[in-house]
Fold this sequence. Notes:
By secondary structure, this protein is an alpha/beta fold. Helices cover 31% and strands 21% of the residues. It has helices at residues 72-90, 103-109, 119-132, 150-164; strands at residues 6-14, 28-35, 46-54, 95-100, 137-142. The chain starts with 5 loop residues before the first strand and ends in a 15-residue tail after the last helix.
Amino acid sequence: MNDFDLLHIYVDGSCLENRNVTNHTKAGWGFCVIKGDTGLGRGRGEIVHESNGEVITNHQKPDFIGAEVGSNNTGELSAIAHSLRWVLSNVEKMEIVICSDSTYAGNIASGKWKAKANIRLAELTQSLWKEVTFSNKLSWKHVRAHRGHRWNERADHLAFRAMKNEAVLPLQFWKPGLR
Length: 179
């Protein structure tokens, strides 16, 4: 496969005070889809799409996807779920690698681990994972957080800005490490 047959999707979740979280704790999610990435973190490739948003914990809101609390974990799982929704609408017959700095989220999303909390969010994410695998090759890999990996840092920026309800910086004005 050449680089154009492979997409890397970097996901992240953000929550300032990630202790004693509740359904009122603010959290955000973000993901960026990269074509032509080598996976080494040097910023190769180009952004095909990026998106972010707040973790919704209110069952009454239309964007609710199952998070019971706002946390880094629900942000990570939300980012994976939203990225898989994007894949279902925009990608077919490609190899997709979800890149996350959360072993927990990667193993829950892929069905390797069973969730003990936020069950609805975990089940939705696992269902989307299975659906994507019908027409794409899907896997996930762990990337180390806050180590200067350009695209992981971009996903962190997206998630942090969503949590703070602040605008995302355009790529030309952003650099890794800038939240």
